[in-house]
Amino acid sequence: MRGLTREYVLQRFLMYLLTIWLGSTLIFVIPRLAPGDPISEMVGRLSLDAGYIENADKLIESWKARFGLDAPIHVQYFRYWGNVFRLNFGYSLSHFPTEAWTMVSDALPWSLGLLTVATVLSFSIGVTIGSLMGWRRTPRWLQLILPGSLTFTAIPYFMFGIMLIYLVAFELDWLPATGAYSRRVDPGWNLPFIKNVLTHAILPVVSIVLTSMGGWALGMRGLMISVNNEDYFLLAQVKGLSPTRIFFRYGVRNAILPALTALALGLGGLISGSILVEFIFAYPGTGYTLYQAIISQDYTVTQAIANLIILVTATSVFLLDLLYPFIDPRITYKRNMR
Amino acid sequence: MTVGQQTVDETTSPARGWGLNTWDSPWLNFKFLLGVAIVGLILLFGLLGPLFWDTDLAYTGAGPLNKPPVWQEGGLPEHPLGTESNGRDMLAQLILATPSSLKVGFLAAIIGMGIGMVLGSVAGYVGGWWDHVIRTLSDSAVTIPALVVLVVIASYVQMTDTTAMALILAAFAWPGPTRLVRSQILTLRERSYVRMAHLSGAPALEIMFVEMLPNMLPWLAASLTGGISVAILGATGLEVLGLGPTRVPSLGLIINQATTNAALVRGLVWWWLPPIIILMVIFVGFFLMTIGLDEIANPRIRQFSSTRRERAAAGELPAVEHAELGGGEEEDAALEVDDLHVHYFTPRGEVIAANGVDFSVRKGEILGLVGESGCGKTTVAMAILQVVQPPGRIVQGAVRIEDRDLVSLSGRDLREVRWRDLALVPQGAMNSLNPVTPIREQMADAILAHENVGRLELEARILGLLNDVGLPERVIDMYPHELSGGMKQRVCIAMAIALNPQVIIADEPTSALDVVVQRVVAQTLLEVKERLGVSMVMIGHDMGLQAQLVDRIAVMYAGNLVEVAPVESAFSEPLHPYTQLLIESIPSIKERKPLNVTEGLTHDLRNPPPGCIFQFRCQHVEQICRERRPELVEREDDHLVACWLYEPERQSMIELEEA
Ligand code: SF4
User: pTM of this prediction?
Assistant: First the structure.
C-alpha cells in the first residue's frame, strides 16, 4: 500500500468539504445574526444620497424578494448553497449591474499570482536557511550570517510594507508604490506590460517574503535538530556517507515533511495577511476587492469573495494533501498524522 | 540508541527537576527574559503614561494641525511627538492606544487557550469519537483564513469596544492550543512516569495537573505568547482596515487614519511611524518570548546552540589526550579500546559516562559488553564509532583498528574507515532505517560510499546480502514501515556485512524484539559471524542471551569495567560481586530474562565516590574499598577483575587497620 489509497483520498476529500462547509456557513450565518438587514441599510444609504426615495418600503420588499431574503431561513440556506455551487452570487450592489462573480474573478488572478510567488519564495528560502542553521556541519561563517535573515521575522507583512512604500517608493523613488500596473501601459501579453506588472509586484512580494521566511527557517531549524538526533541519522554517519548526502537524503528529506504540513496549515494565515498587504499597496486582488466591497457595503461581492477565498485556501490545502503521500511513503499508514 | 540520554532517569518527571527559583532553571532563558522585559516596558508606557501626560489631548481639535515633533523645525514643546490632521496630540494618542491593543491580544489568546485546553484534554484523554470530532473540527478550522471571516463579521457587527473584538478573535484562537494540548497529552501518556502514576491509581485530573501540566508548561506558554501576537495582529489588521472599534483609540486605528489621510504621500512621518514602531517592538517582544520558550520546551535546540558556542570558544577540535601510540598489548586484536574517557558536559556538571574503559576484541571473537541501562555501555559503543553526541565528548583515550587510532581521525580519513572496517548493527532497528527511502537505496549508499560498483552488480550484491540474512528478494524495494521489527533488524545485519568489515558493533541487537524473533536474529548474527570470521562487540543487558552468543564477556558498572572473562569462567566462577549479582538474577540460563537489578543505591555519576564505584551496593565492602579504587587486573588465566576481594594486599590492610 503506497501512494494514494482510496481511503486516504476520500478522507482528505471529506475534510476538504467540511472546511468549505464550515467557512461558507459562517459567512452565511453572520450577516443574519447581525442587527438590521443589508437591504434596508442600502436603501437607507440611497435615500441619504438622494435625499428621499419614494415608496422606500416597497422598494425594500421588492429587493428582498429579488435577493431571496423573504424566504424562511432554511430555504435561504439551501438556496445559498445552490448558488455557492454554481458560483452564482448575484449582482454587485455597489457596481450594479456587474455580476459579483465577474468582479471577483477579475481580482483572483492578481492575488493568486502574488501569493504563489511570495509563498514559494519565502518557503523555499526559509527552509534552506533553516536546514543550514540546524546542521552541525554548516561552515562557521554561514552559521554566523544566517540568523541575520531572521531580522524581520516578527514584523507583520503590512507594517513592513508601509515602511517599504515610504522608503523605496516615496523617498528613493525606485519602485511604484501602489497598484498592479500603471495606467499608461496596455494590459495584454506584451513586454512593457509584463515588465510593468513585475515592477509593481516587487514591493508587495518582498514585504511578504522578508517577513515570513524567518518563521519557516526557525521551524525547519528545530526539525533538523530533531532529525540530527534520530537513529537513522546516526547510522548514516557511521556508514561513512558524505556529509552532503547525509544532509539532503537523511536530514532535509525527513525534516521537510512536517514543514510541508505546517505550510498547508499556515496557508489560511498567509492569505489573511495578504489581505492587508493588498490593502496597503492598493493591489487589485481579492483582498483589496473584499475591503472595497465591505466599505461600500456590497453584500453580494463580500459573500462571493469570502467564499472564494475559503474555497481557494481549502483547495490548496487539499492539493498539498494529495501531494503528500508521494513524498512521505508512510502517510497512508499514519491515520493520526494531522 | 538513546545516545547521551541514558543518564536521564525516565521514571521521574523531568519537570520535578525544574526549580523555578534556582539559578540554573531553564526559565532563565535570555531571549525569553528579554522579550518579557520589552513587553513589560511597553505595558508600563501605556499604564503610567496617563500619570505624566494629559490624555485629553488625544481628541479632535486639541491642538494645531499637522505639527511635526519637537525636534523638527516647527515643532511645539507642548506636543513633543507632534499632532495630526485633526489636531490630536500624538503622544496622548499613543499612550491611550497601546494598552488597548495589548489588552485585546491578551484577552483573545487567553480565552482561546482556555477553550483549547479543555477541548485538547478531552480529545487526548477521552479519545475515541470525541477525539475524532475535535481533531477534525480543529484541523479544518485552522485552514480557514481567519481574517477573511473576521472582516466579514466586522462589516456587519459594529464593534463598540475592545472586549467584543477580543471575543470574536478568540473564536479563531482555539485550534492551535487544542492541537498542541492533544498531541502533548498523547506523547506524555506514554512516558513511564505518567504510566506509573496511572498504575498507582491516581485520578485522571490529578495526573493531568501534577504529572502532565508542569511538563507541558513551556509549550503552553510558547503557544500563548504566539497566540497573543497573532490576536494583536488580527485586531490591528481590522483596525487598519477601519473595521475595528472606531471610538476607542488603538494603534491600528491611528495607522488607518494616517493612511486614509495620505500621511505617507504628505510626508507626515510622525503620524504613521510611531504606532508602527510600538507595534513592531511589541511583536519583537512576543517573538523573543516565543522562541525563548521553544528553547525551554525543547532542550535539544538549547543544547545545539550551546555546544556550538562551546565549540567556537574551545576551538573546532576537542582536545583529546591521546594514549601512547603502538601501545597494543595483544597481537591478535581486531579492535583495541585504550583508556577511554567520555564525559557529558551538562549544565549541572560533568557526567562521567566512561571512565578509563580498556579492552580489546580478538580476531573472530564475540565480546559481550554487559551492564544495566545507564552504565555507559552504549556510550562506549558510540565512542568506538566516533559518534558521541554533544554535549558528550571523548576526553581521553584511543580506539584502534589495525593500529589506526579512530579518535585522531576526522573528515575523509574517518569516513573511509567507517563501515569498511567498523560497522554497526543498531539497537532495535525500528528507527535506524531512513523512513522515506526504500531499502535498496539505503544499502546502496553504504556500498557506493566506499566502492565503485556498477548498477547491475550493485543490485546483485544487495540481493545476495538480503539472501544471506534470510530475507526475500522483494524486500529490496520495500520501505522500512512495510517491514516487521525482525525484518528491519535483519536488513541492518545485511547492511553491516555489506563491506566485510573487520569489526561489527552490535548494540543490543535484539532488545526491541519479541522472544521468537530474538532467537532468529541472534541466529542470523551467529551465522554471519561464523561465515565471515568477523569480530563483534555485542552490547546487551540480557545475560542469558550473552551466555549463548559470546566468547568473552566484559561487565560494566557506572562507567567502569569491573570484570572481563571468558564466558565459561564468568558464569561458572564470577569474581566481582556485581557480576555475581547479575548472574543470580537469571533464574535459569535457558529461560532468558532481562536484567533486573534495581535495588540498592547508585552514586551520582557527576560525582563518583573515591574508592570502588560499587561500594554502595556491595555486600563485601570494607574500609579500603571506600578509599582506594581497585584496578582491573588479571586474577586467573584471562580473567580480569577490579575488586579488592582478590587482592592479597587487602588482607594486610584490614589487619593493619585492626591493629
Ligand atoms: S572492591 Fe570492595 S566494594 Fe568494590 S566490589 Fe570489591 S569488595 Fe565490593
Answer: 0.81
